[in-house]
Here is the input.
Amino acid sequence: TMGRRSMLGGGGTTLPLSSSAIINKNASSTPNNTMSLNKDQTRLRIEKMEADRQLRRQRTRELRVTRAAEEKRNLSKGNPGDVDFIGLVHQWREEHGGSACPHGEESSSQNNENDDLWGTPVTTTSSKGDKICVCVRKRPLNSKERKKKEHDAVTCLHPTATVHSAKLRVDGISKYCDHNSFRFDHAFDEESSTEEVYRYTAKPLVRYVCCEGAVTGRTRGSVQQQPRATVFAYGQTGSGKTHTMGGIQEMVAEDIFLTLSNNAFDNEGCSLENTVVSVAIFEIYDGRIQDLLNNRTRLKVLEDGKGEVVVAGLEEFEASGPRDFLSLIERGQKNRTTHATEANDVSSRSHAICQILFRDKFNGKFKGKLSLVDLAGSERGSDTKSHNRQRRTESSEINTSLLALKECIRAIDGDSKHVPYRQSKLTLILKDCFVSRSARTAMIATLSPGSNSTDHTVNTLRYADRIKEKKVGNLFSPTNRSPAPPPE
Here is the structure.
């Protein structure tokens, strides 16, 4: 018992611990300190994560407020749509806005001898008197596009037109824009008036047919090549072709009779004293030719012994002044074939051709011709998915004739010996405008600015670009993509 008490420190007395016991106690307390330190670091990391989370939430709230304000500003400007893509387009315009060039001075009969018909200086790489002028015109966003929240995805900075195609990367989140630029003789934005478009496209042709062509008409052998000029309006359904052509027709009516009344040329020129102006309007619909000024009478296309193409049965109506001219235009427009499609409620389903003929008042001899052609709207396959058989047939006929037209225009601009005008009835009827050495042509490609139409707009620009194949050159940076800033 005594031994047991001495070992336990009898009387409640605690004996001093040995050194080994102290070491064991310190060793056992070290893990507790480490655990406490780890808990402090974990707590700090959690607090930091919470602070970062709060900061991100604050930034997100601020970004939402900023985006809402920016979206409101875009809506007030009539440009709804995705704020990020609109920002990319705006950024591109800010970077390249200074590259726009002013349109040249209005062409006139007193052009510099080094200028061609369109008032463009002739360089060593182009021959005098270009036979074709290609321009593009962009229309503003319409109410249907705004309702669908499409944004403006086309920029026209003369002489270029650029399409900003909205894209998503593979992750489905990152946004960027593809910028496809094309160069033409003229590029008109949504602020340009129809009068400005007319000044640089159709007006030189009116003067050429009425004045310059009649005096300086070329000859092939002993036969004089009378002046022939054609103005085409081409583009997607609903892009503004008929609107543009309607305004041009009104200005042509005024300008023709003003030019004839002020004509100061000799007896070979055209004037009101020796020239009669007549108008004929017909359409090509689904391979059929119909006279729009004569109860839609069916017509035939024939060739005479001299190889001249004649529309048999087509009636010509004399116009003594602008009022008579415009009344005939309005009458023909009312008889034109239109149908509702997915892209346009009132889509022109036919090619409408207005021929203005100049004949000698005394012997009826042909002196010149100006053709105003409002082409049917081109369509993609996706635009015809809900069409019936008749609409699909129409679309196929339209696209076939437009392809043939492109090849013919390229042939005349390149002075090709072969012009494939027999590929469609449209090009066959306009044969004299292609094979005549005195033919001049202006093409106006109309563009839809909506972001959902960018694929079709690019196709329209490629169609127009292949006619002359002008290079964009160093006007823009070679970079053709603009990535959106990474999300916060």
About this structure: The longest helix spans residues 19-76. The two ends are 79 Å apart (CA to CA). The longest strand covers residues 275-285.
